[in-house]
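Lab notebook, bench 4. Still working through the backlog of constructs that have no structural model yet. Next entry is a single chain of 149 residues. Request: give me the structure tokens for it.
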Amino acid sequence: MSDLYDLYQDMILDHNKNPRNYGELDQADRHADGFNPLCGDKITVYLKVREGRIEDVRFKGSGCAISQASASMMTESLKGKTIEEAKRLFQGFHHLVTQGNAGEEAPDLGKLEVFSGVFEFPARVKCASLAWHTMKAALDDADRTISTE
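Model written out:
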């Protein structure tokens, strides 16, 4: 096995078993719900935005290891980012999981690069990206449940 594959497995399993920033955020001023009808993943993303910057972010939900690990790692990546930086990170992550690399103009994805192999498994792309689409909906103040369908 490659080192990247081992890292991928270890990080996904760790974030699934010990999700960071899990739970409701009482002071949230934005939130959105997401649902993947293919596998039943459900997620709610809570954001506390102050002066155009994500001060805090949390999530709750249930689903497969990839969806939960992606949500956990997403929350770690978003804290302190501006709304524009968060949207660029969304674009970079989405490109990564759908195309296999972040591309030249994508932001540095850091640890999120462990999801680069997801694009090889099209059914898992929706699992990995559910939290991200839900976060973007929360930033956009969408008043509907986000679906991967």
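Notes after review: The longest strand covers residues 41-50. The CA atoms of residues 96 and 102 lie 5 Å apart. Flag for follow-up if needed.
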